[in-house]
Write a structure and sequence with these properties.
Blueprint (H helix, E strand, L loop, with lengths): L2 H15 L5 H9 L4 H8 L3 H7 L2 H10 L6 E4 L2 E4 L7 H10 L13 E7 L2 E6 L13 E5 L4 E4 L5 H10 E10 L13 E8 L3 E7 L4 E6 L3 H4 L17 E3 L2 E6 L4 E6 L4 E5 L5 H15 L7
Antiparallel strand pairs: 1-2, 3-4, 4-5, 5-6, 7-8, 8-9, 9-10, 11-12, 12-13, 13-14
Helix pairs in contact: 2-4, 3-4
């Protein structure tokens, strides 16, 4: 074979070997990785892989398909990491060393209490200076302990406070929620929600990190949500904490044996029956709450 032909064949083989892979094809391949650790290793291979793996729209897709790792519990006593032989123990140890779970950047250190944790953020509420004072809305801050950032939320506007205080029966929260699909323009976006059980209807107070503002979302009346001849005060209290799953908050209505649901996308309330066998997990969760205090917060 002539030397020139062999050179052309070698060049053709090299061109095929270095043919770039389209970003959309790379994304489809990366979405099929079994674990986030595989994605991190792929991102370290070359700049084009890293560009696809760190794209915000891709990350949102990846998170929908892969459940986040359980690394530990965040409580008022700090971060309690999972230990070997749990498969997430190495990642949990790395997080414990890198993050600031003492929240040292906050003012008046020691007067904040953990209320919720979600998507790498921790929500804390300031304890009232005067324990005897009847304070409904205290200061709230959302922290990113890994990147050592925090955002002190503005106070709930007076008109919303007055609306709730005049008719309030029980106030639950604050709780962290992911942003709505319309709001999700930044990976750092989040919402904070209070649920007020008023005498005539449930009311949600929502803070959006994108707008930096609070707004109210009133519901139908209790009688429209759940026809009943009994007044709301006879229904008993909901559990102090909320449950969150698949874009909805749930509160147990003890007396009714039903669940009050807040759909965070539409910000509408409804009342539904609990799933079959719910009595068993309610018992387990209550026991866990008694033992762990604030230990239900998962980072």
């Amino acid at each position: 074979m002539a030397p020139s032909l062999r050179r052309r064949q070698r060049r053709t083989g090299q061109d095929k070997a270095t043919l770039p892979i389209a970003d959309d094809l790379l994304a489809e391949i990366f979405l099929r990785f079994p674990t986030p650790a595989d994605l991190v290793r792929a991102a370290a291979v070359c700049p084009s892989f890293r560009r696809v793996a760190t794209d915000r729209s891709f990350i949102r897709q990846f998170r929908k398909l892969h459940a986040p790792l359980l690394l530990g519990l965040v409580t008022c006593d700090g971060f309690h990491q999972v230990l070997p032989p749990h498969p997430s123990a190495p990642a949990a140890q790395a997080l414990a060393l890198a993050a600031d779970f003492s929240f040292s950047v906050l003012p008046s250190l020691g007067r904040w209490c953990v209320h919720d944790a979600r998507d790498g953020r921790v929500l804390l509420r300031r304890k009232p200076e005067n324990k005897k004072a009847s304070v409904i809305f205290t200061e709230v801050v959302v922290c990113d302990p890994l990147h050592r950032r925090h955002l002190l939320l503005p106070p709930v506007p007076k008109d919303l406070q007055d609306l709730v205080v005049r008719h309030i029966d029980v106030l639950i929260g604050p709780s962290l929620a992911p942003p709505s699909e319309e709001e999700e323009v930044e990976e750092t976006s989040f919402r904070v929600i209070y649920m007020a059980r008023c005498k005539t209807q449930p009311v949600a107070l929502i803070f959006s990190s994108n707008t930096g503002q609070w707004r109210g979302a009133a519901s139908q009346s209790w009688s429209d949500l759940e026809p009943s001849t009994e007044p709301i005060t006879a229904w008993g209290d909901f559990l102090y904490r909320s449950h969150y799953a698949y874009g909805c908050f749930y509160w147990e209505m003890d007396f009714r044996g039903k669940l009050l649901v807040l759909h965070t996308r539409s910000m509408e309330f409804s009342i539904v029956d609990p799933p079959p066998g719910a009595g068993e997990w309610r018992h387990v969760e209550r026991q866990a709450w008694d033992v762990c205090s604030c230990g239900w917060h998962i980072f």
